[in-house]
Amino acid sequence: METSSLKRDFASRLLRIKAVKLQPNDPFTWASGWKSPIYCDNRKTLSYPDVRTFVKIEMVHAILKHFPSVDTIAGVATAGIPQAALIADILGLPLIYVRSKAKDHGLENLIEGEMRENARIVVIEDLISTGGSSLKAVEAIRQAGGNPIGMIASVTYGFPVAEQAFADAKLPLVTLTDYNHIIEEALATGYIQESDTEMLQDWRKDPAHWRQ
Question: What is the DSSP code (8-state) at residue 31?
Fold first, then answer.
C-alpha cells in the first residue's frame, strides 16, 4: 500500500473504533500536565481482530521494506509488547521487551528475554509523543550490547521535539499514521469541523505551552 494511502486508511480505522478521541473544546490533561485536544489509545486495536491484523501485517511490511537485516524484535512496555510478539511470530524472530524501569526484585532486569551481542533490533512502539520514553528504551538496548536499527510505531504526533530527538539518537522512525492524517480523516468524516483545524495545528506546533 502506498504510504499516504496507508496513513489515511489506518487513521480511518482508528477513528472508527474510537481509539482516537478529538475534543478541541474540552481538552484532555496528559500526565505531563500538557493540555491536549487529542487522546490516542492504540491499545483498543487489540480488541478488534481486523484492526489488530492490519497493524500486525503493515508493521511486518514496514520492517521488511525499511529494516530487512533485522534479527530480533523488541517491544516497549507496555503497549508495544503485544504487537511486537505478533510480529516476531510472523517473522520467526526472537522477541525481547524493555521495561519502563528495572524490576526491584529477582534479577532486576530492565530488558526481558535473551538478546545476543550486537543483535540487529527493530523496536516496536505504540505512540510517539515527545519520543522520550521510546528513546530511553533504545538507549537501554544499546547499553546492553544490542544494535537498534530502527523503530516502528503505530502513531506519531509529529512534534518537532520528537523529530529532533530521533535525529539526535540517529534512529530511523517509521509510523503507520500520524497526526496530520488523523486530522484530515476526522475532517473528511465530519468528526471535527473546519473551524477546529487551525487550533488543532497550533497545538501540535507547541503542545507544552498550548492553552485553549
Answer: T
pLDDT for 210 equals: 85
Give bridge partners of residue 76 from the DSSP assignment.
98
Number of H helices, E strands in the chain: 7, 10
Handedness of CA 160, 39, 55, 11 (dihedral sign): negative
Query: Is residue 194 packed enough to be buried (19+ CB in 10 Å), middle (13-18) or exposed (0-12)?
Result: exposed
Residues present in the chain in total:
212
The whole-angstrom separation of Cα 101 and Cα 99 is 5
Q: pLDDT digit string (tens) for 24-55?
A: 888 998 877 889 999 999 999 999 999 999 99
Nearest to 157 by CA among 101, 95, 203: 203
In the prediction, which pLDDT does 104 show?
Answer: 46
Amino acid at 106: G
CB atoms within 10 A of CB 2: 7
> Whole-model pTM?
0.92
Longest dimension (CA), the chain: 55
